[in-house]
């Protein structure tokens, strides 16, 4: 009877390579790793600064929008028609259908008018 040989499977972690940068191994590789980390830190700092500047611009724009909304709301509040005194009739009398003449000589039925 023949014995079957046991197959040993190897993975990438079993490969011996000098490409790994272990502390105390080859000094030039350790220095190269330090340089790469410093460059990455610089890029991340630039990215952070750009994002902070963008966030600040967004905050400024939101503040400007809030200011403009307040101005428009104040303008609407000031331009609202004054309420009529209690003794006078409000709107059209019940049952009448008055017409309103527009600039283009068109007429609109009084029942279609809106009061805000």
Please characterize this protein's 3D structure.
With 116 residues, the protein is mainly alpha-helical. The chain has a domain of 56 residues. It contains 1 helix and 2 strands; from the N terminus they run H-E-E. It has a two-stranded antiparallel ribbon with strand order 1-2. The relative contact order is 0.04. About 8% of the residues have low confidence.
Summed up:
Helices cover 46% and strands 5% of the residues. It is mainly alpha-helical. The radius of gyration is 40 Å and the shape is elongated.
Please give a handful of descriptors for the protein shown.
single chain, elongated, two-stranded antiparallel ribbon, mainly alpha, 116 residues
Topology (elements, then pairings):
Blueprint lengths: L26 H53 L19 E3 L5 E3 L7
Antiparallel strand pairs: 1-2
